[in-house]
């Protein structure tokens, strides 16, 4: 019988489902090859297997495999997070002469581009962009090791993600006090967890929000004892249904308990344990409940029912000050941390992008800004300039709100970033990007486009490094040890996201660059070539963080200059 297996991709580390030949019936895999192709399984000749990225496996694929008499039990274990991902088999592709060695996630994309039937100019542009994004990931990895980012990560777990309603309550009440809320907590949390206390003159100026109160159902000893009896009876009557990774077994278990238990709520408790504890089998669940009977003699089941709300007051960090004296020493002794200090805007931005200091450079920068505004108009995206508080701007499907005080290079980069959101992230994409990790993925996409477009025009984009490092630390819940270690964790998570969504990022970047090139003055005559200052191509100049505003971006521009120079030399020979 064919059996579905789970492995790690040889070099990219994501999980893949693999279907190899059956030793007892070697021809069976070949007989169902057309069925496997229909559900997008790919054939890998060196190992004679079919495989598919676990991320894209659907229930319909599993049903198809079942109809082909394939053992798919590993799928349900994977689906219910019962597989130890660290112990998965990983084929060493370097042992096979057929498989190229990949040094990172982009090597596969590079190979595809090199093999594609596109013009040499387009190929060079795409390959150059990949190298730029690689350098972005490398720079971000180094930025993540900075002390202020480590401190941010250490404290970030102490801040909530408020609901939309409470966020609006905080914003309205803080505006009344002429404050921009950035980090908010209650007075006790500020003092106990973060080493700060509310200023006396601000004690009456906090923001009142509504905190939900949840009901918890207590399951006492008699019910626990009955649960153990039910579970053991179920296993004795149906030994083959002991494994909980099979959803059919879970349905059978809940139905059995519902039909036989004296307590009508016991099935809800068992269902709660199945979802929350991820037990491998029914026997282990019975063992867990048995321990609860002895100590402490009861268990809680969170019903998830809101029974009411109560008003609580929160304060922004600007309304607090660091603890001092004995209070500070006691806090350090208890937590081992220094008091929380908010990250200033300039730290998020890293090295400030410098605006050009020449009239010519300023004029060209303004042309690029006008070009982006024109590009937004052509994409039917409305641009509004308003007071955005601490945010540089935001995208809202068809509309972008920008900071009314933004100007120069910062304005240009933010416009590109928000337009990338508009081009790449549909309403469905944004709805699907739940939680911190979802937000991280969206920000990597948009910032990668901004980095690629800004550097292609010759601007410094150092702000990207700190920006993405902070997003990676928060979005991927990385530990301080993972940031400062030698595992290049930040680089890996960024390259992984870029490789997953590379085509939309590339398309958006090339489309913006192509539009902005229309706003660059036409290159004329040999005299105009002098403004490119060829000394900028020296090694020392290339190592500089700040790149010149004007340089040869495409082979077409180089061709124009070369033709002009050749015409000049021909004319001097005829003199």
Explain this structure to me?
There is one protein chain. This protein has four domains: 2-95, no CATH class; 123-158 and 349-521, no CATH class; 163-339, no CATH class; 522-575, no CATH class. Helices cover 52% and strands 14% of the residues. It has helices at residues 28-31, 33-38, 59-67, 73-79, 106-115, 120-143, 147-156, 164-176, 187-194, 221-237, 247-260, 266-277, 282-294, 325-335, 345-349, 359-378, 408-424, 427-432, 435-456, 463-475, 480-484, 489-500, 502-517, 539-543, 555-573; strands at 2-8, 15-19, 42-44, 49-53, 70-71, 89-90, 184-185, 196-198, 207-220, 298-316, 320-322, 382-386, 393-395, 399-403. The strands form four sheets. Strands 1, 2, 3, 4, 5 and 6 form a six-stranded mixed sheet that branches. A three-stranded antiparallel sheet has the order 7-10-9. Helix 17 (408-424) crosses helix 23 and helix 19 (435-456) runs antiparallel to helix 20. The longest helix has 24 residues, at 120-143. It is flat and about 95 Å long. Mean pLDDT is 76; it is low at 93-102 and 521-554.
């Amino acid at each position: 019988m064919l059996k579905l297996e789970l492995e790690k991709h040889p070099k990219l580390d994501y999980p893949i489902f693999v279907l190899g030949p059956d030793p007892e019936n070697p021809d069976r895999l070949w007989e169902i090859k057309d069925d496997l192709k229909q559900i997008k399984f790919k054939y890998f000749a060196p190992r004679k297997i079919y495989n598919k990225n676990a991320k894209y496996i659907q229930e319909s694929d599993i049903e198809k495999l079942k109809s082909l008499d394939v053992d798919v039990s590993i799928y349900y274990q994977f689906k219910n997070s019962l597989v130890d991902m660290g112990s998965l088999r990983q084929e060493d592709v370097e042992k096979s002469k057929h498989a190229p060695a990949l040094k990172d996630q982009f090597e596969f994309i590079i190979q595809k581009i090199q093999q594609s039937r596109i013009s040499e100019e387009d190929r060079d542009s795409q390959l150059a962009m990949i190298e730029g994004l690689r350098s972005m990931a490398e720079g971000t990895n180094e930025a993540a090791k900075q002390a202020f980012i480590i401190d941010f990560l250490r404290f970030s777990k102490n801040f909530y993600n408020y609901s939309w309603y409470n966020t609006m309550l905080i914003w309205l009440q803080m505006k009344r006090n002429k404050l921009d809320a950035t980090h908010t907590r209650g007075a006790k949390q500020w003092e106990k967890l973060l080493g700060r206390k509310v200023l006396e003159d601000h004690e009456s100026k906090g923001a009142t929000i509504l905190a939900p109160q949840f009901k918890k159902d207590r399951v006492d000893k008699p019910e626990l004892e009955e649960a153990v009896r039910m579970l053991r009876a179920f296993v004795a009557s149906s030994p083959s249904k002991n494994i909980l990774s099979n959803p059919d077994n879970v349905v059978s278990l809940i139905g059995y308990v519902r039909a036989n238990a004296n307590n009508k709520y016991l099935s809800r408790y068992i269902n709660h344990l199945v979802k929350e504890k991820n037990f491998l089998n029914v026997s282990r669940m019975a063992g867990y409940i048995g321990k609860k009977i002895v100590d402490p003699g009861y268990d809680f089941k969170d019903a998830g029912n809101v029974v009411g709300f109560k008003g609580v007051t929160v304060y922004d960090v600007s309304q607090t000050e660091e603890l001092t004296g004995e209070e500070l020493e006691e806090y350090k002794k208890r937590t081992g941390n220094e008091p929380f200090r908010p990250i200033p805007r300039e730290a998020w931005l890293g090295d400030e992008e410098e605006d050009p200091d020449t009239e010519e450079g300023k004029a060209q920068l303004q042309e690029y800004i006008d070009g982006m505004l024109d590009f937004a108009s052509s994409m039917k995206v409305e641009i509004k300039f308003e007071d955005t508080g601490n945010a540089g701007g935001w995208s809202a499907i068809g509309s972008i709100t920008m900071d009314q005080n933004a100007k120069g290079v910062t304005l240009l980069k933010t416009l590109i970033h928000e337009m990338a959101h508009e081009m790449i992230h549909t309403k469905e994409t944004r709805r699907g990007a739940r939680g911190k990790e979802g937000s991280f993925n969206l920000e990597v996409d948009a910032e990668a486009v901004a980095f690629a477009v800004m550097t292609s025009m010759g601007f410094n984009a150092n702000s990207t490094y700190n920006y993405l490092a902070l997003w990676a630390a928060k979005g991927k819940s990385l530990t301080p040890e993972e940031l400062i270690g030698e595992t290049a964790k930040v680089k890996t998570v960024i390259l992984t996201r870029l490789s997953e969504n590379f085509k939309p990022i590339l398309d958006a970047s090339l489309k913006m660059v192509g539009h902005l090139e229309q706003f660059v003055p036409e290159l004329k005559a040999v005299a105009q070539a002098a403004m490119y200052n060829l000394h900028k191509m020296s090694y020392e100049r290339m190592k500089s963080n700040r790149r010149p505003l004007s340089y040869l971006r495409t082979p077409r521009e180089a061709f124009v200059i070369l033709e002009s120079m050749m015409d000049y030399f021909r004319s001097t020979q005829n003199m």
